[in-house]
Design goal:
- The structure is a single chain.
- The chain is α/β, with parallel strands linked by helices.
- The protein has three domains: about 160 residues, Translation Initiation Factor IF3, CATH 3.30.110; about 150 residues, Alpha-Beta Plaits (2-Layer Sandwich), CATH 3.30.70.270; about 240 residues, TIM Barrel (Alpha-Beta Barrel), CATH 3.20.20.
- The strands form three sheets. It has an eight-stranded mixed beta barrel, surrounded by four helices. A five-stranded mixed beta sheet has the order 6-7-5-8-9. A four-stranded antiparallel beta sheet has the order 2-1-4-3.
- A hairpin with a 2-residue loop joins strand 6 and strand 7.
- The two termini are about 50 Å apart.
- Keywords: Membrane, Transmembrane, Transmembrane helix.
Length: about 650
């Protein structure tokens, strides 16, 4: 109950108490007044009647006495009139039962007891006692008058109370309105949203509360900003190249290994290896400052090319080497983009050197297929770079891809996806402290190749992207998953959505409407890659709100590696995050990884977000995760993905 309602209840209780006391006092006072009125009425009647009946009483004329008493009694205000002679012998007695109007409730009669007094008047005639007259007025009159007064008082009390409550309610809400703002501030603060009240109330106590709350909001915001800044500094120091801002050698190799050797979901593409010919000579020609500017230009041009890939791997692997893993498979497009890169870098170099000398860098390009390992791919790219150096050419392409059978494979993948001929595998996410307890199972899409053998996502995902069938694939996966959830109500499944599906509002609406058919919508978990979240923050935020209203859980996959940081968590506020496997792979051997993961977990828990770790393979990793208070783990330590 709100404080306004509590105050109104208290005010109403006080009003009821005051009204009850007022009615009681008024009733008691009115009762006493009416009793006195009945006494006066009886006494007056006895006096007047005695004066009139004195000679008849002395003469013993009972007929005249009876006639007179009946005439007076019939007025209806008397309960009994009794006339006795001087010897107290009855001359005439007229009485009736105590009649009370039906308008007076029975409970009121029992609650208020009124006993009219019997009034007496001695009658004398010629200085001798002729007898006595006894008169008792009727109590019904008093009850009727007392009830009418009480009823009117109660009606007016109700009317005035309602008017008072309305007025007091409006007044209370106006006075206490700043407290509603304080409540909104507190709720927003729990979600890391910082709201300050601009309207400061005039009431001294409320003013101090609002000012104190505003100050606390500013301090908490400063604290979390400093925490995020500190973690970002840790990330830069551990995983980012100081000069270019790209991933450093350790982070680049770790991400390359994660995408190619473990996740194997990149699809076909190319690894671009850019190397400066002679860094020492470059420093001598340009000077250190200009040489650094040229190195930054190399990083910028590669980053520009990386924007054509949804989830690229880009980094500086040595002081003179850069790599970029791109999903561009079209040779003509790749050649066009690399020629553009060479032209831009040539212009930058010539501007810095003020000459038309040959640009001192070489580019090697190696094709990536699902059979390649990260080490093999890097060796091929370096060999291509060395070949470019030997031939004194800017770019050398080392086996840009085998196009034999490519058309038939594209047709095969297209037919499978369009017809929904896929099957699902799943891998459990388990609690760190209880490996028997599964949090949910993450779903992976698979198809059969032309030999009817299961193939990994990396073997067909690039074709699906080229054919713009990612949304169709996601729709098929969700249909299969929801069908399975309907069959098994105790199952909880997590499904990853692609960047294309997130951008498709019709797809999102379809997902919400379809998922609501589940008896328990919380059985379904929707996951989106961190890069997709950052690239589509507004759409994801709206989509997240729709999922929350529908009761569907939402998570961010591959968390913690994007250079843009994690401040988006305050806006999106997912139910859980999955820390990227590249940060987990050497967790048990690297203090820097442990420190950074602990920082990520701390931030997530401060926002009431669960933190899970991906690609856990060893017990030592699991032990380290337990010490870091990670909530759950997923990986081959619990087995390879199995068919759902």
């Amino acid at each position: 109950m709100s404080i306004v309602n509590q105050l109104m209840a208290a005010v109403l209780a006080v009003l009821i108490g005051l009204a009850s006391g007022t009615v009681y006092l008024m009733s008691d006072s009115s009762k006493e007044m009416l009793v006195h009125q009945l006494e006066s009425h009886g006494q007056d009647t006895a006096t007047h009647l005695g004066l009139y009946l004195a000679p008849y009483m002395a003469a013993g004329d009972t007929a005249a006495i009876e006639t007179t008493v009946n005439a007076i009694f019939d007025s209806g205000f008397y309960q009994q009139i009794r006339v006795v002679d001087a010897d107290n012998k009855p001359l005439f007695v007229k009485s009736t039962t105590a009649q009370i109007s039906d308008s007076v409730p029975e409970w009121f009669i029992h609650l208020v007891e009124i006993t009219p007094p019997e009034m007496t008047r001695e009658i004398t005639n010629q200085w001798q006692k002729a007898g006595t007259i006894f008169v008792r007025s009727r109590a019904g009159y008093a009850y009727e008058q007392l009830w009418r007064g009480t009823e009117q008082t109660f009606v007016w009390f109700v009317i005035l109370s309602l008017l008072s409550i309305v007025f007091i309610s409006l007044l209370m809400r106006y006075i206490l309105n700043p407290l509603k703002g304080v409540e909104e501030q507190a709720q927003a603060l729990s979600q890391q949203k910082y709201i300050e009240q601009s309207l400061i109330p005039g009431t001294r106590e409320l003013k101090q509360v609002v000012l104190a709350m505003n100050m606390m909001v500013r301090r908490v915001r400063t604290m979390f900003d400093e925490q995020a800044k500190h973690i970002e500094e840790i990330r830069r120091a551990a995983y980012q190249d100081d000069l270019t801002g790209l991933a450093n050698q350790r982070a680049s190799f770790s991400q390359l290994n994660e995408r190619i050797d473990y996740r194997r979901d990149f699809g076909h593409g190319h690894l671009i290896h850019l190397q400066l010919a002679d860094l020492q000579q470059l420093n001598n020609q340009l000077g250190i400052e200009k040489a650094n500017n040229f190195i930054r230009a190399c990083a910028d041009q590669l980053s520009e090319l990386a924007r054509l890939t949804e989830n690229p791997v880009i980094g500086r692997i040595s002081i003179s080497e850069f790599i970029l893993l791109t999903d561009i498979t079209n040779p003509d497009q790749l050649e066009k983009e690399l020629d553009k890169l060479v032209t831009n870098l040539t212009e930058v170099y010539q501007q810095l050197n003020n000459s038309a000398e040959h640009v001192p860098f070489f580019i090697g390009v190696a094709a990536y297929t699902e059979q390649s390992s990260s080490k093999e791919l890097l060796v091929n790219a370096r060999q291509a770079n060395e070949k470019a150096r030997q031939d004194n050419t800017s770019i050398y392409y080392n086996n840009t891809g085998n196009t034999v059978g490519q058309s038939s494979w594209h047709q095969h993948v297209s037919n499978r996806i369009v017809s929904g001929d896929i099957f699902l595998q799943c891998q459990p996410v388990k609690h760190i402290s209880d490996s028997q307890n599964t949090i949910h199972d993450e779903v992976y899409a698979r198809i059969l190749n032309q030999d009817n053998l299961p193939c990994m996502a990396g073997e067909f995902i690039s074709v699906v992207k080229q054919l713009n069938l990612m949304a169709a694939l996601d729709r098929s996966v969700l249909n299969f998953a929801i069908k399975r959830l309907l069959e098994k109500p105790d199952l909880i499944l997590g499904v990853n959505l692609s960047n294309e599906s997130v951008r498709d509002s019709d797809f999102c609406d379809w997902l919400i409407s379809t998922a609501t058919t589940l008896p328990r919508p919380e059985q379904l978990c929707i996951e989106i890659n961190e890069t997709s979240v950052l690239n589509n923050l507004n759409q994801v935020t709206l989509f997240r709100d729709q999922l929350k209203q529908a009761g569907i859980r939402f998570g961010v996959d591959n968390f913690g590696i994007n250079p843009a940081g994690f401040s988006y968590l305050y806006t999106v506020h997912p139910d859980y995050i999955k820390i990227d496997g590249s940060l987990i792979r050497e967790l048990d051997n690297c203090a820097e990884d442990r420190f950074f993961v602990r920082s990520l977990v701390t931030v997530a828990h401060s926002l009431d977000i669960k933190a899970y770790a991906e690609h856990v393979e060893r017990d030592t990793q699991l032990s380290a995760l337990h010490q870091l208070e990670v909530d759950g783990a997923q990986g081959w330590i619990y087995g390879k993905p199995e068919q759902l």
